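Entry type: protein chain
Record version: 2
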Amino acid sequence: MTLAAITGAHGIKGEVRLKLFTDDAEGLKRYESFDANGRTLTLQSVRQAGPGAIVRFREVPDRTAAEALRGVTLTVPREALPPLAEGEYYHADLIGLPVITPAGDSVGRVLAVENFGAGDVLDIELPTGKSFMAPMHAVTVEAERILIDPVFIV
């Protein structure tokens, strides 16, 4: 599961800036290391920086090494994630789920979960190959499918 992406270097001592895909930087502290495109990076420190984070990894000694990581995603195995409470889900669990109306009519499948600042939005692919976006408040997440309010179908 992808938890963050490295957006660039911070300072000259090897720290990197992260775009977070978690609630906050504190969530990263539960993981000792991350997979960074096949390379293991060991967490030394992390702090919140606006909507992102500033992180130091043991394997990144200087700004040059930090800059070389720009664009790399940080992942952990699914089994390393904390357990979910009833009714909770990870965004990755929604990708690929079929989308249907309450009447049982097939609409398509979830391509991605996006957030442009106003809340989560599902990118839904129609059988024609075209897609549309629907806000999370327009859907109900069930165990193996997504129910969508028909007024949001484009």
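Comment: The first helix runs from residue 63 to 67.
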